[in-house]
Design goal:
Number of helices: 6
Largest sheet: 7 strands, parallel
CATH architecture: 3-Layer(aba) Sandwich
Helix content: 25-40%
CATH class: Alpha Beta
CATH topology: Rossmann fold
Distance between the termini: 35 Å
Radius of gyration: 15 Å
Strand content: 15-25%
Number of strands: 9
Amino acid sequence: MTRRTAPDAAQTAAVAGGSGSSGGRRLYVGVIGADSCPPQAWEAAARVGEGLARAGAIVVCGGRGGVMEAAAQGASRAGGLVVGVLPGPDRSLANRFLTVSLPTGMGQARNVIIVLSSHAIVALSGGYGTLSEIGCALKHGVPVVGLDTWVPLREGRPPEGLHPVAGPEEAVELALRLARARASRIA
């Protein structure tokens, strides 16, 4: 297992006051999606993770494979902090790119922790678990940026709080903007 080292002073300073912060506080952006994904979704998730980390945001994910691992890899490559909220009771299935892994023993119920720990969510690809996280986020007022994922319609339009985008860079930019706005309204 690869061990990550603590960020150096320059990284810490960049995070504390970088674009991924809000009033000196770090932004937490969840990245959700399927635990297995095609190469195109993997690349998009890695680019999202990397972009969020470069902006100084903490990436929160489910800590396993697929979209979660790709986002963690991208964030790790950029020197970012990645928190994985694991469904099982131990760290045995955690991906190797996590900075912090949190076993919960809660199965899919850990999705609520991921959502409520995040100022904004980026949803990529995904199955029914991802759909449940999107619904949970919308119910709790956590904005969701959707990239090639579920877009439930309400009266023919996406519900308020769900923002479909076309590419990873747009996803990062919008997620950071929405996270900053939410962070300024909550503790």
